[in-house]
Design a protein that fits this description.
Helix content is 41%, strand content 32%. The protein is of the alpha/beta class and 114 residues long.
């Protein structure tokens, strides 16, 4: 399945709903470009909804980390919500699970930005 992405505003938080495979090339580029666009328009509170992500390779994980670093360095926050069991395993295997705040449901994640 081709990667898709949709952004929506919930108060001050931009929620990015990701779907499909976030892999080298199209999926990770899509994520990188959207994060850059948000940063350039001063959006610094970003919630990535990973419920629809079927697979993420090391390139996708790299984009998560790069986006997180850029946003935090600019005084922002990037949090993750609705990770599948497989996504949790990928983040643990790549040793990046500890840098992200993760949430089971969107309301809890949105409240965490306050």
């Amino acid at each position: 399945m081709e990667a898709k992405l949709a952004s929506r505003q919930v108060g001050e938080v931009t929620v990015i709903d990701l779907e499909g495979r976030i892999t080298l090339g199209q999926g990770s580029d899509l994520l990188r470009d959207e994060l850059r666009r948000l940063i350039s328009t001063n959006r610094r509170k970003i919630l990535l909804n990973l419920a629809g992500v079927s697979y993420m390779d090391s390139s996708g994980v790299g984009q998560l980390v790069a986006g997180f670093t850029t946003i935090v360095n600019q005084g922002g926050q990037l949090k993750l919500v609705k990770l599948s069991k497989r996504m949790r395993e990928v983040l643990h295997m790549t040793k990046v699970a500890t840098i992200f705040e993760t949430y089971e449901d969107e309301d809890a994640a949105l409240h965490a930005f306050a």
